[in-house]
Design brief:
The structure is a single chain. By secondary structure, this protein is of the alpha+beta class. It has eleven helices and eight strands. The protein has helices spanning 2-21, 29-36, 40-51, 55-73, 79-85, 91-102, 106-111, 115-121, 123-132, 164-177, 245-259; strands at 142-147, 150-158, 187-191, 204-210, 222-227, 230-238, 269-274, 285-291. It has an eight-stranded antiparallel β-sheet with strand order 1-6-8-7-3-4-2-5, covered by helices on one side. The protein is globular and about 55 Å long.
């Protein structure tokens, strides 16, 4: 029974990975049932039962999520180009669908995204993905490294995580203006609170970019700082870039007590190695660092 369940999960995971990699292709029921190696009728029922979404709805949400990221964070791409890549024949059809889902037009979202309805709209997609994308970590996944100190420019986010998207948008715009491209200047997140504190107002994270150049704020609340060097337990996470909490909990709750190590007085942080939507969502990579004494 366990082997059969693992085989079933592997087939469904193969479908999700295929969707991520081929969002620009024809992802109809025939094509995806072939990937799963099920009959079309059986696959449709099983997919809906497993994920709580029809195949069509899942693909729509996945395409719309990529489109919304590109609108918010990729100013150089036109709304028409984004609409076509999302599977719409014309920008006005995309605009109607976008407004129905998020309560804003694409151009309005690009200028000033309202992130709360955005988070609510993608709740079903995130729930669906989490059903099969929960990785089980082991001690063999963790390495101990001596890492150098890294001077960084910091934009702090303090307050409701629902507004984090707006802070990220400003951070990306600032680093672009400063010429600090992700390919040459590493990106870090330093968590100074739990992912879901008792009060949303207590949520706290630093968005950082590595640079040894003088920091020019250019009108933004940017300050210079440093991620200290030293020994760190490092855990690489591939996929599910929006929720690194399971990996962080594994390091703190399971790995650390069993290792005999002691945590240093600096928060857990991550380096974003590759990003969605530059790579398919399941291929995004983040290295999680737990500073050690």
């Amino acid at each position: 029974m366990k082997a059969a369940l693992q085989t079933y999960h592997a087939r469904m995971q193969r479908v999700l990975d295929h969707i991520d990699r081929h969002l620009d292709d024809d992802l109809d029921l025939d094509a995806l049932s072939d990937v799963a190696a099920y009959s079309k009728f059986h696959f449709h029922r099983q997919f809906t039962a497993t994920f709580g979404l029809s195949v069509h709805r899942y693909v729509q949400l996945a395409r719309m999520k990529r489109a919304s990221y590109r609108l918010a964070y990729r100013d150089a791409e036109s709304v028409t180009e984004i609409a076509m890549d999302a599977g719409y024949d014309a920008p006005d059809a995309f605009a109607r669908a976008f407004r129905r889902r998020f309560g804003q037009s694409p151009s309005s979202f690009r200028k000033s995204p309202d992130w709360e309805p955005w988070l609510a709209a993608f709740g079903p997609l995130d729930d669906a993905r989490s059903k099969l994308m929960q990785k089980i970590f082991t001690a063999g996944d963790v390495t101990i490294r001596d890492v150098p100190s890294t001077p960084v420019a910091i934009m702090e986010h303090r307050g409701d995580p629902a507004t984090l998207g707006a802070t990220i948008q400003r951070f990306i715009a600032w680093r672009r203006a400063a010429g600090l491209h992700p390919r040459t200047s590493p990106t870090f997140n330093v968590w100074r609170s739990e992912r879901r504190p008792a009060s949303p107002a207590d949520y706290s994270v630093d968005l950082c970019v590595g640079t040894d150049q003088p920091v020019e704020a250019k009108g933004e609340p940017i300050k210079a700082g440093e991620i200290p060097g030293g020994r760190c337990a490092v855990l690489r996470v591939v996929g599910n870039p929006d929720n690194l909490e399971p990996a962080a909990l594994y390091l703190y709750r399971d790995w650390l007590p069993a290792s005999g190590e002691e945590a240093r007085d600096f928060p857990i942080y991550c380096q974003r190695v590759s990003f969605f939507p530059e790579v398919p969502e399941h291929e995004a990579v983040a290295d999680l660092f737990l500073p050690l004494r």
